């Protein structure tokens, strides 16, 4: 019994030594008091869930009760010493070869949290994803080819999982760490199967996105929620979620350490512009769907710069958003436009900081390191450097381990009798309720009330985007009704998430395409035969023409000869009449 005591003391010490930017409040059904030891990091002025949204009344602390007499405990003994603990890391995923690019893009754009269609047009989600993935695959393949033929994201994320496992075991927390990708292997479904196989009874879900967005963490958690609802084993498994962790002191210090190190590589560090480049999202996600991403990103930048100022680093800085796709308006300012503007203002040195990412992938290795660097040099910026992604940086991994330990008292906090509540993922409210809060604000993305303006304006950009989407929908309707078009000739069948119905449709379309190709080849062969026949007829006509010319020439020569003989006869008759006749003489 001595070992569990030491084990739990170390965890309690770890909890006591951690610091937080805001206290987490205990929920006991009657009162709310700050914990002596900080637990989950949540944003300032945020209602318990680190998603910065107004929660529904059913999610408020006073409305939650537990089915067991005990309440949420601050002592990890009851949580850690009983059952097998697992940590599930959620991430985007990426193609590991050029052949994986198109199916990966299909899985990405088939996600309704990436392309948010109105309810009336959601049946077009998969055809639209197929259309976009086929259209974008060639350019994307060029990008992946330039970084080695595939994304390193899986390798790096698995290295982070192993580093996190070791860090937790060093703290005497025996856990298994799993990796679940949203759009490529290992898929979240594959990770869940491993969790069930290993008999995990307590699960901490940790998205590897520092800031929460409905298109990143939200999408992964929504998928996980649907998986939980359909599995009896998962329904009974205790679990908790760390929705975002950009405010954690360890994360902020790790980012500041890397930035400070890179600044020293410049000849004049004090003149360097610190350029935070974040992955963008459509503006409608923030303004109409209530996505907290922009607010959390801005606060994250402020916290990092505050840490640097404590270290006497007072450089100018800016935040911009990259990787926009399509004609609709995304969060501004855009990274490429900002780089050009900084060049015009005479900025000579830039330190790029990929603030959204904790792993190297195509957006850092190709988009920032190649495209934006070239643009910067063309814009007159002479010195360019980039802060590497955190990867397995020790301070960062140690902080993630602390976050997992601090969340353990909340594993199973929602152990209520109601089945639907037991299926929830977030400790104080289900992910479905959390995302429904955004949906209720979004109201199916109603069109903003704007007045048409001429010129390159926000309203013009909005209308251009709608016109483009309408054109795409018209093309898709024509594809479905006629069975002919771009997709049916060039589309590649996705390797995952394809249902039997869609497979049958693809089979029918494939058969039609093959039939069309066969008919086309037969028509081409017939045309070739006709062409050969016409060539032979032309040759025959030429020969006939030559023969006729020869006959005409011979006929002409005969006519001339006969005419000359006739002239000779005429001249001969005249001479005889003039000479005297010998007999008469």
Keywords:
8 strands, Rossmann fold, 585 residues, disordered C terminus, disordered N terminus, four-stranded parallel β-sheet, alpha/beta
Contiguous low-pLDDT stretches (5 residues minimum) are: 1-79, 413-451, 574-585
For the CA atoms, what is the radius of gyration? 38 Å
> What is the H-and-E element order?
HHEHHHEHEHHEHEHHEHEHEHHHHHH
Structural class per helix/strand content? alpha/beta
Helix proportion? 40-55%
- Tally of domains: 4
Q: How many extended strands?
A: 8
**CATH overall fold name of the largest domain:** Rossmann fold
Strand composition percent = 5-15%
Q: What kind of sheet is the major sheet?
A: 4 strands, parallel
Strands side by side in the biggest sheet: 2-1-3-4
State the CATH architecture of the largest domain. Answer: 3-Layer(aba) Sandwich
> How many DSSP helices?
19
Q: Indicate the CATH class of the largest domain.
A: Alpha Beta
Task: Please tell me what the overall shape is.
Answer: elongated
Give the CA-CA distance, first to last residue.
176 Å
Tell me, rounded to a whole number, the average pLDDT: 76
Write up what this structure looks like:
The chain has 585 residues and is an alpha/beta fold. It folds into four domains: 2-96 and 151-247 and 394-442, Rossmann fold; 249-386, 3-Layer(aba) Sandwich (Rossmann fold), CATH 3.40.50.1400; 458-490; 499-554. The chain contains 19 helices and eight strands. Strands 2-1-3-4 form a four-stranded parallel β-sheet, sandwiched between helices. It has a four-stranded parallel β-sheet with strand order 6-5-7-8, sandwiched between helices. Helix 13 links the parallel strand 7 and strand 8 (383-386). Helix 5 crosses helix 14. The chain starts with a helix and ends in a 7-residue tail after the last helix. The model is unreliable at 1-79, 413-451 and 574-585 (pLDDT under 50).
